[in-house]
Amino acid sequence: MDSTRDLLIALARRYAFADLGALVSAAEIADVCEFGQRLLSLDAEDFAAEARAVPADLRRQARACHMPQTPRQQPRGALESLRPAYGLLLEVIAARWDRRELSPMIAAVHIASEYLPLLAFEPQLGHAGDPAKWPEGLSAVGSRFGVIGDRECDHTKSEQSATNRTLRVSVEPAEGWRAYFDRQHSQVAGALAVCVATCRNPCTAMDWIDPEARAGLETRARTALAFADTPLVRLRHAAPVGHGFGVPSPEEVLDAWERSRATLDKNAVGAAALKDDGFPLPGLPSLFSAIADSPIEPSRLLEGVSKHIITLLERL
Prior knowledge:
55% helix; 2 domains; mainly alpha
């Protein structure tokens, strides 16, 4: 019995929640393992799923990373603030690195890159890109934001479609809301960054932002766009999840990150990536913090789940 329990505890310490859940017979432990696996897999739609066997503080932290599934669902989770979600992303990236699961690790980096502009905009918006709370200034007179077919707008056709949809999706049925987040919300994030940082024909869409604050936002948004084009993020295209080919080695990941840090070192925000903050990809938490204009550290959600499972196992 002790040797079996020692094996199960070792799996819990490695965050091998799926394997552990398949081996245990205790329903309570299996439920906690399922909760932990959802976190590790970044299954944000189901973070708020009922999990009575999980301590309330862990469920509360997970709900802060949850993406609402209806326009009016409360609490707003990751639409209120993306900072908890980025803390979880960092913890997942570190866990995947430790387990040498590099394909899902790069997938997590890719997810972080897609929504990074919204992290930059959060101080000005007062939320994390909630379509139910977009500022009226986005649709001010002279704004091209969400106008489909405007050739003066620097947005791509898909970005124009996404920005048009985001201005009205909060009054759509739940099915339309979920479809928007599945396919278009990340494009809105990039479109916002284009508006404030790289647009060649600026309109009035960003005039609602104070000029002094806008200068800092422009730098943060530009850096967010630059991160999405770094060698590290581009590894995603060479690491198809679920396939046994094209997965980068640890050396290739570190080399891509070093080259990425060099390309980001163009301003004070991007230079944060050069900090040695003890993370497996040194400087990544510092970079996210600089773009957010607020401290972001790896969460301890997976660690908390692991410790709770070990406590339950030790009672067997």
